[in-house]
Specification:
One of its GO terms (cellular component) is Golgi medial cisterna. It holds the Pfam family Hid1. This protein is mostly helical and 800 residues long. The chain folds into 2 domains: 315 residues; 307 residues. It is built from 35 helices and 5 strands. Strands 3-2-4 form a 3-stranded antiparallel beta sheet. A hairpin with a 5-residue loop joins strand 2 and strand 3. The protein starts with a helix and ends with a strand.
């Protein structure tokens, strides 16, 4: 009965607020207390009982009352942070105020005139009688008071952390409390694991939800090329003003990385017991990725020690980024990597009993966190690549890429997965690690094969390119760049993977595909470069690939003799009109898919998705480095690089707008997905503006790197044909045996230097990450739906 009375009283208070035309004074506590005192309402109740229309009505018609409500709610949080909420009633007041502010803040942010409200000092704030709201320097802005109060409350004994009180009469002073002793979970920089308390987890999750809502002002600003515009909420919270920055960062990271959704592995335990930790872990990882996003993308040098004391003395602007970049102990890296790998692998786990283990849903946030760790902490990146542990991250990423390839609502997941692999592929060790045999039985909708992790990567990439949806075309460059980067280190490709690579070359080198857009020939250059790397540097173990090249030798001869006369061009363009499909899917020999796998399916009708800005072209995403004889990498200046001539010429030939923004200065313009689709359709209809010419074809045809492969064919084809005739061979295993023991030493051209295209951050990718990350946060917070139906401007919410 009490609960329904609470809801009724709360609803009456809301109606009073919306119908009052006169301002209600801040001193009228009897009126304001109706919202938080003596009521027990859940956050779902608050969202149901405070409709959006009424918040907007108060904002427009009684602005002073909305301002006072916000101010009074913050005041209650500040008072609770000072007193430590010793009574249950005070704890309930804090939770009620937290829920009300979570409900109201998005409507403050969506109105440009209100955005500065929390950053102004409130007239009459001195009446609060508290130090926080009435500083020595005059009143603090309301936003600062709110953020500091949340930080204090996240380390409030018996509310959000386990109390260290020695006896029943001793009281812990909130002002002198050392929050480094109250870190929520053992892990980085903290050895003790406090006892689990689900009430504390629930309270932490409520406060973190409010904190995330504070940070979400970024959603209400349109995409901007100016990456120096920082979110004031994040900037203040992650500054030295927040005395809890270090223990909170450590708590969030440790809670995420220590979480084990399976527990002791008892089947169906997640259906029998509520897991309050999962909700906290989701909120924690979202807070981490949002706070780590604001640093202008500049990695910090790692410090020589990551003890708590030395981390305390760190200085730069964003302390969360600073602390992350300074972690360096091997045991800390091991804890973080194993924790993330365990969580990323969780949805792949197979059991004999259907639905018997818990499957987490926050893998996209985990991938962004892994990206941040690798980007800001190069020592972590090298640790990841030091052993085959990197494969524990690679396999789930390939699983997600393969699973999402047909679903347009998950195009952002496809991008983040590919970006991570592009980043890893810039390091030699990644290519070396891929040679480990693949023995896991993760059910994927791909052909069965026996081979290495490199084979798995190639087979999945082939599946994405040949059976993914149209919007994945901008990623083809990235996928092939990853293959090129790892190719010099691949010791032995399986026959399945070799055939997949040859099928891609066959599909990309058809005249209709090469002549249909100005940059399609780049894909052929990438594949030829990968073949050359393997032939020159890993010939001995790659008889399968050499055999596949010999079998498909006509593809290379056709490329060498590519016609460039106007009649052929016209014929190819006519063929394109008849067959708009990206590439031929029939000539690839599809075999049986893995047991237990499900085919990739499109999004369910009605699925919501957030739009994304376009990604920069591969020339903007990467910078070229040459591997010298001692194994070190030397960066190649872009202007002098002869290898980029063909891409530069293609730009000069008239390409200013591909969907991936290749060949235009994308620091200046950002497109939403809807705009990109319109541009794609308009560019499709205006292909008459750009037509391939014989001169354009000759400009890049003469640069096709075919010499090594032609020499290989020149030497080996006659030998293979002679063996087949002499011995009457029809069995390919005998031919493979011959190729295995063959050699081309001294017969091939001088090996070319290895070129690696390393990922490089820029304004375009920074903006992409911001829109993707906030889109994920928006769509994942549905209970309660914090931002639903508010006027977000960073992206568009679209229904599939």
């Amino acid at each position: 009965m009490g609960s329904s009375d609470s809801k009724l009283n709360f609803r009456k208070a809301v109606i009073q607020l919306t119908t009052k035309t006169q301002p209600v004074e801040a001193t009228e506590d009897a009126f304001w207390d109706q919202f938080w005192a003596d009521t027990t309402i859940t956050v779902q109740d608050v969202f149901a009982l405070v409709p959006a229309a009424e918040i907007r009505a108060v904002r427009e018609e009684s602005p002073s009352n909305l301002a006072t409500l916000c101010y009074k709610a913050v005041e209650k949080l500040v008072q609770g942070a000072e007193s430590g909420c010793p009574t249950d009633r005070e704890k309930q007041v804090i939770l009620n105020c937290t829920r009300i502010l979570t409900r109201i803040l998005p409507y403050i942010f969506e109105d440009q005139d209100w955005r500065g409200f929390f950053w102004s000092t409130v007239p009459g704030a001195g009446h609060a009688g508290t130090d926080e709201l009435d500083d020595d320097d005059g009143a603090r802005p309301l936003a600062e008071s709110l953020l500091l109060a949340i930080a204090d409350l996240l380390f409030c004994p018996d509310f959000t952390v386990h109390s260290h009180r020695r006896g029943p009469d001793s009281v812990e002073n909130m002002q002198s409390l050392d929050s480094c002793e109250y870190i929520w979970e053992a892990g980085v920089g903290f050895a003790q694991s406090p006892p689990l308390n689900y009430i504390h987890d629930l309270n932490r999750a409520e406060l973190l939800r409010l904190l995330l809502t504070c940070f979400s002002e970024a959603m209400y600003l349109p995409p901007s090329p100016d990456n120096s515009v920082l979110n004031p909420w994040v900037t203040f919270f992650c500054s030295t003003e927040n005395r809890h920055a270090l223990p909170l960062f450590t708590s969030l990271l440790n809670v995420v990385c220590a979480y084990d959704p399976v527990g002791y592995g008892i089947p169906y335990n997640h259906l029998l017991f509520a897991d309050y930790r999962e909700q906290l872990v989701e909120q924690a990882v979202q807070i981490l990725i949002v706070t780590l996003e604001h640093d202008g993308g500049v990695p910090r040098p790692a410090a020589s020690s990551s003890s708590i004391e030395e981390l305390e003395n760190a200085g730069p602007e964003n302390l969360f980024v600073n602390y992350l970049s300074r972690i360096h102990r091997e045991e800390d890296f091991d804890f973080v990597l194993k924790g993330l790998a365990r969580l990323l692998t969780n949805p792949l786990a197979q059991t004999y009993l259907p639905h018997s283990t818990k499957k987490i849903q926050f893998h996209q946030e985990l991938l962004v966190l892994f990206w941040k760790l690798c980007d800001f902490n190069k020592k972590f990146l090298f640790f990841v690549l030091k052993s085959s542990d990197v494969l524990d991250v690679l396999v789930p990423i390939l699983y997600y890429l393969n699973d999402a390839r047909a679903d347009q609502s998950r195009v952002g997941l496809m991008h983040i997965g590919v970006f991570i692999l592009l980043l890893l592929s810039g390091e030699r060790n990644f290519g070396v690690r891929l040679n480990k045999p693949y023995s896991l039985h993760v059910p994927m909708d791909i052909p069965v094969f026996t081979g290495t992790h490199a084979d798995l990567l190639i087979v999945v990439f082939h599946k994405i390119i040949t059976t993914g949806h149209q919007r994945l075309q901008p990623l083809f460059d990235c996928l092939l760049t990853i293959i090129v980067n790892v190719s010099p280190y691949l010791k032995s490709l399986s026959m399945v993977a070799a055939n997949k690579l040859l099928h891609l070359l066959e599909a990309f080198s058809t005249t209709w595909f090469l002549f249909s857009t100005v940059q399609n020939h780049h894909l052929v250059f990438f594949l030829l470069e990968a073949f050359n790397n393997i032939i020159q540097y890993q010939f001995d173990g790659n008889c399968n690939l050499v055999y596949a090249i010999i079998r498909k030798r006509n593809v290379f001869h056709q490329l060498a003799n590519l016609p460039s006369d106007p009649a052929t061009i016209q014929k190819a363009l006519q063929r394109k009109k008849k067959s708009p499909d990206v590439i031929s899917r029939t000539s690839s020999q599809e075999t049986v898919s893995m047991e237990g796998s499900h085919p990739a399916v499109p999004a369910e009708p009605g699925t919501l998705k957030a739009s994304l800005v376009a990604i920069p072209g591969i020339d903007k995403l990467t910078e070229k480095s040459q591997v010298s004889e001692d194994g070190t990498m030397v960066s190649i200046p872009k202007v002098d690089s002869p290898q980029t001539v063909h891409s530069n010429q293609s730009v000069a030939a008239g390409s200013s707008d591909t969907e991936s923004n290749s060949g235009r200065d994308n620091e200046d313009v950002f497109y939403t997905e809807a705009e990109m689709e319109r541009r794609r359709l308009s560019s499709a209809s205006s292909t008459s503006l750009w037509t391939p010419t014989p001169e354009w074809i000759l400009s890049w045809k003469c640069k096709l790197p075919l010499q090594t492969i032609m020499r290989l064919l020149q030497v080996l084809v006659p030998q293979v044909e002679k063996i087949c005739i002499d011995k009457g061979l029809t069995d390919e295993s005998e031919i493979l045996k011959f190729l295995q023991h063959g050699t081309l030493v001294g017969l091939l051209p001088v090996p070319h230097p290895i070129l690696i295209r390393k990922y490089q951050a820029n304004a375009g990718t920074a903006m992409w990450f911001r829109t993707y990350m906030w889109g994920v946060v928006y769509l994942r917070n549905v209970d309660p739906p914090i931002w639903y139906d508010t006027d977000v401007r960073l992206f568009e919410i679209q229904r599939m």
